[in-house]
What does this fold into?
Amino acid sequence: MRLIDDQNNQLGVLSLEAAQRIAREKGLDLVEVAPQANPPVCRLLDYGRYKFETIKREKDQRRRQNVIKLKEMKLRPKVADHDFQTKFRNVRQFLEQGEKVKVTIQFRGREMVHQEIGRRLLDRVADEAKDVAAIERQPIMEGRTLFMILAPLHKPSSNAATAGAGQPKEASQSA
It folds into this structure.
């Protein structure tokens, strides 16, 4: 087997017993890294530390990863105007927080005949949200549901940092 030490130096092609002896002398583990190579490649390393660093690297990558949540808002074709406004307020809030929103229209029974009502409802949502969102997926009919996906135009801004920045400070007058 070909042996590589802990400083990435090649020690050459050695027998298994010789490689195990070197690993014992250095207090390291003998790990096979390329079994399909001819001859197989083994490396001397501290396996516990290697696993720890691998797990730490994976956690760090997951932390840096930007996870986009998909919120869903369900409507019906016969939704009243006030109910629509209430639901739309939540949709706008989700979009302002930087989350994607799936707007779903559910049809029951004979409502399936009037799918254009659902399309008009989705067009109304898209039209009212055009200042904060873009249509990521056009309305699609799947079974008895019609849906579209809206994506936020801008990333959420932290209002706490800019809350008092633009206001003039009061000058105290002494008499």
About this structure: The domain at 2-63 is CATH 3.10.20.80 (Ubiquitin-like (UB roll)).
